Amino acid sequence: MKLLKPYWKGYKFDLMIAILMVVISSVAMLLQPTLLSNIVQAITDDNLNKVNQIGLQLLILAVIGLVAGIVNTIFAARASQGMAADVRESAYRKIQTFSFANIEKFSVGNLVVRLTNDVTQIQNVLMLVLQPLMRMPILFIGGFILAVRSIPQLWWIILVMVILVGSVAYYVATHIGKKFGRIQGLIDKVNNKVKENLQGVRVVKSFNQEKSEEERFTNVSDELKDVNIEIGYFFAMVMPAFMFIGQGLMVVAIYLVGNMVDTDPGLLAQVTGFTNYIMIIMNAIIVGGMMLSFATRALVSMGRIQEIMTTEAELSYREDGQKITDGRVAFDNVSFTYDGEEKPTLKNISFTTESGQMIGIVGATGSGKSTLAQLIPRIYDPTSGSVKIGGVDLKTVDESSLRDAVAFVQQKATLFSGTIADNFRQGLATADESDMKRAADIAQASEFIEQYDDKYNHVVEERSANYSGGQKQRLSIARGVIASPKILILDDSTSALDARSEKLVKEALDEQLNETTTFIIAEKVSSVINADNIIVLDEGKLVAYGPHSELLETSPVYREIYETQEAKEVRHDDK
Ligand SMILES: Nc1ncnc2c1ncn2[C@@H]1O[C@H](COP(=O)(O)OP(=O)(O)OP(=O)(O)O)[C@@H](O)[C@H]1O
């Protein structure tokens, strides 16, 4: 409930009207049995005038109840939809502040379920609270008082019913809550499975994995079905139990009243009211119990959203952060260990670059090249040591200054659905056509963009499915360079380009972005042979740093990588 505190204030009016209408419709409902008793009495007394009068009153009550019910639904829907949307948007905003490590911990699929399914649970329960749940105590207390007032001698029957029905309802609410908790977890699993499968649909098909993927999905889906069925069975047994208790006690009440009528004939008219009130009380407890069990499901969901809201971003930025003014980069004794891993991925790395230099990063697979690069835009903080850009320690940097200074182009180009221009504007919000043309020229993307009639307004479909791997990489490089960042990182991001295009991109970068410090992570040493300096990584250690010619002389590791690759290329050319 703490979760909703900041939001309800914006919906005070809607909430007040919804609650007022609940009270009115509940009171209208409570008055009906008394009027029914009176009408039975009037019929017994043969008083037609009174019968008509009470009939009219009953009609008016029914109309009031109906109108109050409709108005309640309208305002309850406005408040619950509005509050749920606010919760969803706040949680989304909060997720935007998360670091990469935060998102990895939750997992993307899990966060999606929290923002969709869990928020819907909260919305549903708000609607329930503003309708049946709020009505329950009014009907229960009112029904209790009016039932005792109509036949005071039978107060104990009501008490027995409250205890019996209340105990069953309590049992249901507490037991079912746990199962609802499991359901949310299983929905996460189903969602993750679907996401993984659809994102990797090409792999699934090319490796003929449809059957085994289907099996894995069916297992999770069946587990979800089983828990849902268990809940269904539970309710299937509980409802008749409630009915049995209520109707059994009603039979007892009627039997006892039947005996009492001999000595007190006035009781006959009261039986109608009494039995009706018993039904109202019983319904209030049953509905209340059911609603409470749904509410426990929403409480689980609230807990899951609250977890997002209270998660501290693993990386925080200072309000008075320092601005970056140039593209020098300095690593000072940097070590880095991934969360949950025992061994460090990077060990005591130190190097410095000047602004505008081109730096190659080479090393075997898994040697830590991407990890090192990720420390520059502060995707992670080093476990020890410091990373500085333009002399500013990234722990004290201003966030937007860092974002403006560093552009990171990843190997797996991620474009967003929309148009090419939309994607370019993520790199530079104010980009006009000439900015786009310059960036596209550098990235060697103009040659295919120019062929589209709508050029930069050409559509990018979901998951950029309408572009080839190489085109995606070019567009993503263009987005990276469009704002002329102080630092540009290309993480193996020309891997899908042919040798000629790759060469042209590098030349264009050299000419057009000579102020930009460019890091190029490359599988092939030949791609970075002309770099000012090359970082050579071996099992997380920086084993050499310098220009190609110097490293060939001084670094056995570098020489070995270079010579092995050279030999491979010669063999390849000979074929
Ligand atoms: N998010 C992560 N959590 C835990 N370990 C990770 C994570 N990312 C990478 N690693 C591990 O860190 C090591 C270095 O990975 P990294 O991606 O930096 O290597 P790389 O040199 O870029 O490799 P490649 O050339 O294959 O891209 C690997 O052993 C990898 O398993």
TrEMBL record:
What is the first-listed, main subcellular location in coarse terms?
membrane
Q: What is the lineage of its organism?
A: Bacteria, Bacillati, Bacillota, Bacilli, Lactobacillales
Entry membrane topology: Multi-pass membrane protein
A Pfam family this protein belongs to? ABC_membrane
In which domain of life is the source organism classified? Bacteria
Q: Where is this chain's protein located in or outside the cell? A: Cell membrane
Example GO molecular function term? ATP binding
Q: Which residues are listed as membrane-spanning? A: 12-34, 54-75, 125-148, 154-173, 233-257, 277-300
Q: What is this protein called?
A: ABC transporter ATP-binding protein
